[in-house]
Amino acid sequence: MPPSPCYPRFLPVGDAALTVEFGDTITPELNAQVVALDIALAAAELDGIIETVPSYRSLLICYEPLEISFQQLVAILPRLLSRGGLTRQADAVAWTVPVVYGPPYAPDLPEVAQRLAMTEAQVIAIHSEAEYQVYMVGFAPGLPYLGPLPDRLHLSRRETSRPSVPAGAVMIGGIQAVIVPMAVPSAWYVLGQTPLRLFDPGRQDPFLIRAGDRLRFRRIDAAEFDRLAALTLDALLPLVRVPA
């Protein structure tokens, strides 16, 4: 059996990027290290860094090799890692996301309850009482991957994909949860819908939620959904962003 790799690992990705791997599993602890290094690297303001992309367990760093080399980065990154405070993002935002779980916004809630041998009320309670970490944003612009999903809600994805689920759909699949920023095809289970829009290309900063943020869901009814959906983002933000 080959030896287990030592982490973190610094691996070349072509001639203009490298990835820093922190492990081979999806956990809040590993992801917190990814986010913290991303923040530390941004604060360092190194010449030649083009873009960084955090994921579950690694950070992709794209750079201009004429300004900074792979070897220079590999020498600098351990120093950034050694600075304390890499377990939690200092400026992470906490969100309380309103969700309507009733029909017609939750087409898969009855099936999820049946497959997990629970009542629909139990599924809603477990889903809405948990706190989630935003592991990363991807697949579609502004789509946050959330975890850890409570163990009792772990469920393999649907066997067939829907051609489209609506913007704002709140879904679970496997060991994670997501919020859909726009209509997309998906085989995840739709438990509800939020009036909060996570991506708006017309805003100066089109992305609302970032990797490292914390998030809880708050149950609302259809009338409140309609009221919140009619608000501008500026009016809605004080209702969903938890004060630091």
Descriptive overview:
This protein has helices at residues 28-44, 70-82, 109-115, 120-129, 222-229, 233-240, and strands spanning 9-12, 17-21, 49-54, 58-63, 94-100, 132-137, 144-147, 162-165, 169-173, 176-179, 184-186, 189-193, 214-220, 241-242. The strands form three sheets. Strands 12-9-10-7-6-13-5-14 form an eight-stranded mixed β-sheet, with helices on both faces. It is globular and about 55 Å long. The chain has six helices and 14 strands. Strand 3 (49-54) and strand 4 form a beta hairpin. The protein has two domains: 9-82, Gyrase A, domain 2 (2-Layer Sandwich), CATH 3.30.1360.40; 94-242, Cyclophilin-like (Cyclophilin, Beta Barrel). It is of the alpha+beta class and 244 residues long. The mean pLDDT is 92.
Give the topology.
Blueprint: E1 9-12, E2 17-21, H1 28-44, E3 49-54, E4 58-63, H2 70-82, E5 94-100, H3 109-115, H4 120-129, E6 132-137, E7 144-147, E8 162-165, E9 169-173, E10 176-179, E11 184-186, E12 189-193, E13 214-220, H5 222-229, H6 233-240, E14 241-242
Parallel strand pairs: 5-13
Antiparallel strand pairs: 1-2, 2-4, 3-4, 5-14, 6-7, 6-13, 7-10, 8-11, 9-10, 9-12
Mean pLDDT: 92
**Order of secondary-structure elements:** EEHEEHEHHEEEEEEEEHHE
Q: Could you tell me how far the N terminus lies from the C terminus, measured between alpha carbons in angstroms?
A: 48 Å
Query: Which homologous superfamily in CATH is the superfamily of the largest domain?
Result: Cyclophilin-like
The tally of strands reads: 14
Helix share bin = 25-40%
Report the C-alpha radius of gyration, rounded.
20 Å
What composes the largest sheet? 8 strands, mixed
CATH architecture tag of the largest domain? Beta Barrel
Strand adjacency order, main sheet: 12-9-10-7-6-13-5-14
CATH C-level class of the largest domain is Mainly Beta
**Poorly predicted tracts of residues:** none
Overall structural class, as computed from helix and strand content, comes to: alpha+beta
Strand content: 25-35%
Shape designation:
globular
CATH topology of the largest domain: Cyclophilin
